[in-house]
């Protein structure tokens, strides 16, 4: 009878220690899962008293997690040490009293295994998983218990805390200094995970990634190339420029002297509206209505050009190459599109940059970036550093500029790229199809 009473008291103590360990594990998970930004907003903007208290606890997350984690571990070990001998004795006495030694050994192993499954599952894993779904509500529920809870945990683990801080200081770090915050890579990983789980759309993922890449991207990646610039000579009349505006649909027309490498200003379409109906319109000098323009090198970061646009209140810049010639032009719209994607206005062509066809092939604009093609087909095109566009890659692989009417093809990375449209020695459209052959790079007839 005495043994039965000891078994019951041991089982009760075991259950009690597991329940307390569950509580500590849940408390640590609740603090770790709470959104610091949300709590800060509630505490500062809405003056939520509970949020203020939770935010104060969240800022000391390292200490709290250490206390709770060490308390949980201590309780689980204590539960195991207190109960294991008694439970093994109970099994061997009640069910294996006449069994062989090997059977008693198996029984002992079974008791220990079952006990640790209960300890790890219910004392650690289950509360962490459960509370992660209700972190905020559980955090509010525990607010009144945190002062007492913190005191208990400090008593339980203060030697471990002191020892840990000593080792951290010996390693050359300040134990009172908070760990480094969330990095760019952490955010990208969270966005990718959210996209895989379906909580973040692909368009949202691309926009967030574009925001991070905006700081590193140079203007030569977003500019309109010199061969595509719609410009006017300075000796042309205002009526000529107005005709160009009407024909091309651009709101800003660059003005050059001798050639496109000598852009001296820009004319705004809105400035020409006041001359509509003026009989002497064609005789007015173009230079008098020209605005200054920004000049930046190709290596300029998009972020820096965006800052210049805001400070100068201008929306167009001439991109200059290393020889002082015009590499292209970039506008505020180009910078914005590098983040949000293409913006189609009433004058833009409706032809998509990337168009998926019914047969599984893909039609690309010749100016599409190589990175987009590689991401779409999950391949490495092995382009050199000076090649940014798919059209440029095809020309490099061909070793020549295709002539009008030609439709040459190259295969690289297991994808067949066929030129389908050429205008003024520039590749306009390229058709891409996967091929079953091994990865090659060759020109086909």
What characteristics describe this protein?
alpha+beta; 15 helices; 13 strands; 4 domains; disordered C terminus; 445 residues; CBS-domain; four-stranded mixed sheet
Quick structural summary:
The protein has 15 helices and 13 strands. It has about 450 residues and is of the alpha+beta class.
Order of helices and strands: HHHHHHHHHEEHEEHEHEEHEEHHEEEE
Shape: elongated
Number of strands: 13
Contiguous helical run count:
15
Spatial separation of the terminal alpha carbons: 96 Å
What is the percentage of strand-forming residues?
5-15%
Give the C-alpha Rg: 35 Å
Organism: Merdimmobilis hominis
Domain CNNM transmembrane: 3-204
Domain CBS: 223-286, 289-346
GO molecular function, one term: flavin adenine dinucleotide binding
Structural features, described:
The chain has four domains: 2-170, no CATH class; 185-214, no CATH class; 219-340, CBS-domain, CATH 3.10.580.10; 354-444, Uridine Diphospho-n-acetylenolpyruvylglucosamine Reductase, domain 3 (2-Layer Sandwich), CATH 3.30.465.10. The protein contains 15 helices and 13 strands. It has helices at residues 2-33, 36-44, 49-59, 61-94, 101-132, 135-142, 146-170, 184-197, 202-214, 238-248, 269-272, 302-312, 332-340, 370-377, 390-398; strands spanning 224-225, 232-233, 252-256, 263-268, 294-297, 316-320, 326-331, 354-356, 362-365, 409-412, 415-423, 426-434, 442-444. Helix 1 (2-33) packs parallel to helix 5 and helix 1 (2-33) packs across helix 6 (135-142). It is 52% helix and 14% strand. By secondary structure, the chain is α+β, with helices and mostly antiparallel strands.
